[in-house]
Amino acid sequence: MRFSGLKILTEGLTGNRGWTPHWRDPAPKPEYDVIIIGGGGHGLATAYYLAKNHGITNVAVLEKGYLGGGNVGRNTTIVRANYFLPGNSEFYSHSLKLWENLEQDLNYNVMLSQRGQVLLSHSDGQSDALIRRGNAMRNQGDDAEWISPEYMRKNWPYLNFDSPRFPIYGGLMQRRAGTARHDAVAWGYARGADQRGVDLIQNCEVTGIDIENGVVKGVQTTRGAIRAGKVGIVTAGRSGQVAAMAGMRLPIESHVLQAFVTEGLKPCLDTVISFGMGHFYISQSDKGGLVFGGDLDMYASYAQRGNLPMVEHVAEAAMTLMPMIGKAKILRSWGGIMDMTPDGSPIIDRTDTDGLFIDCGWCYGGFKAVPGSGYAFAHLMATGTPHKSAERLRLDRFRTGRGLMDEEGTGAQHNLH
Amino acid sequence: MRLPCPICGERDVREFTYKGHAVALDRPAPNAGDAAWEDYVHLRENPAGETRELWYHGGGCGAWIVVRRNTVTHEVLGAELASEVAE
């Protein structure tokens, strides 16, 4: 079934009886060419691009819960490509280009809204650093624009421009950045992969990875053993547990990151604002809720919920940046599990086991990376060589010290990002 | 979350700074080689369940403590002074 305006009109006039399920619910076959462990955004995108770009359709995606039930459904939906360091910058640049054509490619409305994102500056030094970053972004062909406090006062008059501690000096705007409907991204990739023959198998938890003489042979699951020539681990949030099944230890600690949404309000915020000094960022959803988040709780956690000190910190940052938010009521808060690497950047690489690949370490930036990660991981698994956008996202960079991508400049150690 | 400091008793988590898994107590020799140092600095068990980790009681007595904690439930199972664990 193809979605179109005509289809919606026809269905609307005929009682909406013609809609069909978006994907099948197949039982696992005994053997596949490729198994993807993890049916989140990255896993589903990998399966989609394996089928679309490389013609590999004898693929199973194994998901222990339901499709898109992890971080792809728990994030704050921001899409951007404003990284500074080589390695990250070309990867996210490529990912944003895929986002821009995603709806046509998938024939699925992911509600990408390029409403822009602005990084605020509060000092001359910070302005210089942001302008330098903007120049780097423009040099590689992406957009970046310095915007003045006057422009901001006109558009977002409620910001606290004259705060004694954090006066607003300007900001770096990327107009092609924005937000997307996070669940729809998972569903769109799932539907696209299913249509090309990929088996999406839910409620199927991987319990072991079969390795013989250094070569992967398949996986053990709660629904039986499944053989495969290649296996990809795409389980950010739980990467450590799955990698342990293959005898690996990863440079990852899992941390909880909280997010919040207010009750629905009238339109007041037409972009994404990042207030880095307060570890705070905010946008407004299409339903009107102000969606915002803060920093990690800063201790290892798999709980998918955080503690009150960070709630208080985020609320303080919100009041510092835009005091009017004090009139809004917080409707919900939730937490997601972040794969935190020592340098704050991701990993897409092969492992020491032949046929076993890993895509992990997305820290708190995984959502915008979904298309780029799936594209690059599919390329690596299909061809055996890294895609050029992701060739620096190596697993061994921590051992060698070569190619660390520490955007914050705090050092490549755990708990600093 | 409240942590039981062996010196000060049970205190709010805001008084503490998190260092990470308690591997810092097993520092390898300077000449132990790349693999041992990568293991120490970067690689982690990262358990979903009970873990041992280092916290610094900067807002209290200034002690380093080893906390046993469950990473899935946030239940705190006990704490000892790092100086005593290291001996």
Question: What profile does the largest beta sheet of chain A have?
Answer: 8 strands, mixed
What is the count of DSSP helices of chain B, taking H or I runs of 4+ residues?
Answer: 2
In CATH, the homologous superfamily of chain B goes by the name: Folate-binding superfamily
Pairing-aware structural class of the strands and helices of chain A?
Answer: alpha/beta
Mean pLDDT of chain A: 96
Shape designation of chain B = globular
DSSP helical segment count of chain A: 11
Which fold name fills CATH's third level, the topology of the largest domain in chain A? FAD/NAD(P)-binding domain
CATH superfamily of the largest domain in chain A: FAD/NAD(P)-binding domain
Widest sheet of chain B: strand order? 3-4-5-6
Question: Secondary structure elements and their pairing?
Answer:
The complex is a heterodimer of chains A (417) and B (87).
Chain A: H1 5-13, E1 31-37, H2 41-54, E2 59-62, E3 78-79, H3 88-100, H4 102-106, E4 117-121, H5 124-139, E5 145-147, H6 149-155, E6 170-174, E7 178-179, H7 182-195, E8 199-201, E9 206-212, E10 215-221, E11 224-233, H8 239-245, E12 253-264, E13 272-275, E14 280-284, E15 289-300, H9 308-321, E16 330-340, E17 347-350, E18 356-360, H10 370-383, H11 397-400
Parallel strand pairs in A: 1-2, 1-11, 2-8, 4-13, 11-18
Antiparallel strand pairs in A: 3-7, 4-6, 5-6, 9-10, 10-11, 12-15, 12-16, 13-14, 14-15, 17-18
Helix pairs in contact in A: 2-7, 2-10, 3-10
Chain B: E1 2-5, E2 9-12, E3 17-21, H1 34-41, E4 50-56, E5 64-70, E6 76-81, H2 82-86
Antiparallel strand pairs in B: 1-2, 3-4, 4-5, 5-6
GO biological process, one term (chain B): tetrahydrofolate metabolic process
Keywords (chain B): Oxidoreductase
Protein name (chain B): Sarcosine oxidase delta subunit
